[in-house]
Amino acid sequence: MKIVAIGGTGLIGRKMIAILRGRGHEATAASPSTGVDAYSGAGLAAALEGADVVVDVTNPRSFDPDAAREFFERSTRNLLAAEVEAGVGHHLALSVVGADRFPERGYLRAKVAQEQIIEAGGVPYTIARATQFYEFLGAVAAAGEDGGVVRLPTSPMQPIAADDVAALMADLAEAPPANGLVELAGPEPGTIAGFVGRFLAASGDARAVVADPAARYFGVATGEKGLAPGEGARIGPTRFDDWARSAGPSA
Fold first, then answer.
1. What is the pLDDT of residues 66-122, one digit of tens each?
2. Which residue, 20, 58, 166, 220, has fewest beta-carbon neighbours within 10 Å?
3. CATH for 78
4. How many domains would you assign to the chain?
5. How many CB atoms lie within 10 A of CB 65?
6. Counting beta carbons within 10 angstroms of the beta carbon of residue 206, is it exposed (0 to 12), middle (13 to 18) or buried (19 or more)?
């Protein structure tokens, strides 16, 4: 199959393309650095010519809520229009587990808006919602730092290695469209505070993590469901300690 990854020069795109090429597919990366800009529409028609599957793993340059929403809405509409013109049979997009649980967080509102456009867009689709990546637990710690300690919720989370996200996205690109949501998660359930504590310990970071049920995650209350997937999620195999020993927090 010909599979085009929009935003394919980023973390997940690069890893996924390598996997797909190893499986014998014609997998290409399309991004502004390769002359393809989903936001403006530049280069889309040529990039999508003959494509069977388009994978959207883009992110905005700015995480300002209004800018993020404008980026996802405009880019997604441009992509879907180009896919209809090119006869693409599957639109696969990477989103976030729990995106619809936290409407007060602007970036997640933008992801939900993107999902809604995809669902109504007329191209067979799969929306893959992934849990937090191990690689980004350091950013979670930074967001929760308060007076030299890291204060984070006790809500559940089930983070995943970026390598596993890429492999599961490759699997979904090869599969027929789900025309719905698929969740991707790591193999170990835990808490937000607990996983960030493990990440800091593996990093040699001496900051203490305070598990506080009232603490917030990037400014939002996480509730009982937190960042955990529902039943039926596709599970990546890499456990946190194995990832920390191989890729590691400094990778």
1. 999 999 999 999 999 999 999 999 999 999 999 999 888 899 999 999 999 999 999
2. 220
3. 3.40.50.720
4. 1
5. 15
6. exposed
